[in-house]
Amino acid sequence: MSLLSNERRKVTASEAGGMPLTQTADDVMFHDIASSAFIGHCSNSACRSGWLHLFRKRTRPVFEGGWTCSPDCTEARVQFSVRRELEGWQQVQETHRHRIPLGLLMLERGWITSQQLRRAIEAQRGSGNLRIGEWLVEQGAIDEVQIARGLSLQWGCPVLSVSNSGMAGTSEVLPRLFVEAFGALPLKVPSGKIVYLGFEQSLDAALALSVKRMAGIRVESGIIPSSVYADAVDRLRNQAFPALQLAETASDLAAAHVLARSIERARPIASRLVRVHEWLWLRMLLQSPGGTLPISSRISDVVCRIGAF
Ligand SMILES: [Zn+2]
Fold first, then answer.
1. Which of 10, 245, 291, 293 is most exposed by smallest CB count within 10 Å?
2. For residue 54, what pLDDT band results from cuts at 50, 70 and 90?
């Protein structure tokens, strides 16, 4: 069974925990925000405060659709979520050894000749810096749009185009760190019902699944031709991103402690934890979506890596 279907199964199991999938009009944030209106029942199942918590003057934080009455209860819930996210870590490495090599695929389709392919392979052997597709472009055998088309056939995904409207608000989708580390370019469509993740060379199914779980909306991945990709990432870098706190901890308990402390400090109206490869990503919604507030006063991210991974 592939990673994707494994992970899908896991998500479904965790969603069965009672998080409603209501979509907010403003998309890209949490599908559980609507449930945060029901205050009065601490969401930590081991909460021992009984009716006492009714006298505690707090309506926030809300973590994964549930209000918590005290810092201890927040930490207990975060510990549970950290454990949930770390399970299945071993399965993460998805390999793609079975894909037809790009050069062969293009040869088969008659896009390049066997001489052109041989030249590119020899050049690649001589200097390992460039990929085969890059050598083919370098040697004038093919252009980058066709390389992107070849990659999209390899991955079974579309070639994405980048419009100006598609770049609006995309810095809300992922922390800047993930854009840089995983080479993913988020793109939105006006309806807000779907987010596209554009990649230059290869898709990242685990990242796409994490974004889907975080945003609660459909995520589709595709290939973007190199120069279009580079230009769009440059434009994205100029956008403001949510505030980001980075943490590195020695254990899952220590990670839960750091994350719970951030939640207690920020008192978000909604927050959620998902794993993205070796990172735990906590996203906190500080204000209702929309409006004219700067992004860093609406959304706050904490990204935490556990040293023992
Ligand atoms: Zn409690």
1. 291
2. low
Angle, helices 144-155/226-237, rounded to nearest 10 degrees: 90
User: What is the Å distance from ligand 1's center to 10 Cα?
Assistant: 26
Residue 304 phi, psi (nearest 5): -130, 135
Which of 9-13, 47-51, 184-188, 217-221 comes out lowest in average pLDDT? 9-13
* Sequence-separated contacts (24+) of 107-114 with Cβ below 8 Å: 109/150, 111/142, 111/146, 111/150, 112/136, 112/141, 112/142, 113/141
**d(CA 77, ligand 1 centre) in Å:** 10
| Range of lowest pLDDT (45-49, 95-99, 189-193, 217-221) | 95-99
Cα-to-centroid distance, 90 and ligand 1 (Å): 33
Please tell me the distance from the alpha carbon of residue 39 to that of residue 227, in angstroms, as a whole number.
50
For ligand 1, the distance from its centroid to the CA atom of residue 22, given in whole angstroms, is 25
Place of tokens 């003057």: 57
SS (H, E, C) 261-286: HHHHHHCCCEEEEEEECCEEEEEEEC
Q: How close is the Cα of 73 to the center of ligand 1, in Å?
A: 5
Find the 161 Cα to ligand 1 centroid distance in Å: 48
Distance 307 CA to ligand 1 centre (A): 30
CATH superfamily of 158-237: Type II secretion system, protein E, N-terminal domain (3.30.300.160)
Give me ligand 1 centre to Cα 33, in Å. Answer: 19
pTM metric for this prediction: 0.81
* Spacing, Cα 183 to ligand 1 middle (Å): 40
Q: Where are the domains of the chain?
A: 3-90+248-284, 102-142, 158-237
Residue 289 pLDDT > 80 = no
